[in-house]
Amino acid sequence: MATKSKDASTEEKIKEAARTVFTKKGYAATRTRDIAEEAGINLALLNYYFRSKEKLFELVMAEKVAKLFGVIAPIVNNNETSIEEKVTLIVDAYITMLGQNPGLPLFVLSEIRNNPEHFGNRIQAGKLLTESVFVKQLIERKPDINPLHFVINILSMSIFPFIAKPVFESAGVMTATQMNDFAEERRTLIVQWFKAMINS
Amino acid sequence: MATKSKDASTEEKIKEAARTVFTKKGYAATRTRDIAEEAGINLALLNYYFRSKEKLFELVMAEKVAKLFGVIAPIVNNNETSIEEKVTLIVDAYITMLGQNPGLPLFVLSEIRNNPEHFGNRIQAGKLLTESVFVKQLIERKPDINPLHFVINILSMSIFPFIAKPVFESAGVMTATQMNDFAEERRTLIVQWFKAMINS
DNA sequence: GTCTATACAAAGATAGAC
DNA sequence: GTCTATCTTTGTATAGAC
């Protein structure tokens, strides 16, 4: 889209700046001036490329949502893998991705919460949580328990530490690097716990 | 504080309105005018009682933080109860409290994230997570594993469903009432899973 | 495409009457 | 204590020159 430019830039610089600022402060607290400054360009230019703050935000948000839910889509619908293999893959995918994007879940969740009408049924994660191959396998293994419990447990244990990260740091529980090591340890532990859980 | 008034009101009405609006939209997206309207009073009056939007917010936030972390403080430092009993108590306390305040965790966490400097070491949750009786018991039981993993797991499984609630609703996974039943089911399940986890 | 200058709207806060 | 009216700041968006 937009006009071709030699250094494939400016537009992308603004988008990148928008990612940074929106993710850090949230939509409402972000000023377009902040984004312009972060991008090293002028405020008017931002409105030239993207029509408004909201348009720019929607672009960024769509990316973030795709990233947050995209990691598991191919995993949970694979017919070739067992439950246990899927769990390993999900946990690894999330911990790796969130190690690089620690603020992602909290950002997406809180923006959805603050502005639910913007996301009216545009989020397709539902099918992943209720109709995937993974869910079918869980029902077969544990017919008496709502499979969503297990899905939530995996996601909880993988994602929650990153959501709670601001508290850990504010409360001095862990430094950022300790947080990293901590998350790494969980890769194998969560799988192990899940096995105990599903066999209990 | 403030002046006495017959119906013990106005000030409290504003505070209550502030709780509602801040929790629903977050600090940045909240307009003092919204709070005034919700309280059924005038904007000027809000500034008369509380000096500024920020002062009012800090008041509300302090309450919310206390509520979010207060539930577990007496439980995890009890010398008379076993690990398993503590887990049951923690899970029950959180699921009950969050059933009545579903938006609480996401609100507190995202505000801390968006404005970490406001909370510089004012959050005392650290001690609960690292120096409680509960933690000591966990170390004794599983000396080879960082006890924080288990604490996080309990909190994850109890709290995360409420944090993800906006997605469930936006994506049509569950209605609000189904969410309630779902959370209720987890009371006993989480305890059961935790036992499997810690004995594995 | 990029800038400076500015219009316009929204939001926080205060003055002053009652 | 409570209101109406208003000041001031800030933030989004646009006009228009280069």
Major sheet of chain A: none
Oligomerization: homodimer
Q: Please mark out the parts of chain A with pLDDT under 50 across 5 or more consecutive residues, or reply none.
A: 1-6
Total helical elements of chain A: 12
Strand content of chain A: under 5%
How many E strands of chain A? 0
Shape label of chain A: globular
Report the mean per-residue pLDDT of chain A as an integer: 94
For the largest interface, the chains and their residue counts are: A-B, 57 and 58 residues
Radius of gyration of chain A: 20 Å
Question: End-to-end span of chain A in angstroms?
Answer: 54 Å
Percent helix of chain A, as a range, is over 70%
Describe the structure.
The structure is a homodimer of 200-residue chains. Chain A is mostly helical and 200 residues long. Chain A has 12 helices and no strands. In chain A, α1 (11-29) packs antiparallel against α2 (32-39), α1 crosses α4 and α6 packs parallel to α10 (147-163). The longest helix of chain A is centred in the last third of the chain and has 23 residues, at 176-198. The radius of gyration of chain A is 20 Å and the shape is globular. Chain A starts with 10 loop residues before the first helix and ends with a helix. Chains A and B meet through α1, α7, α8, α10 and α11 of A and α7, α8, α10, α11 and α12 of B. Chain A binds a DNA duplex (18 and 18 nucleotides) through α3.
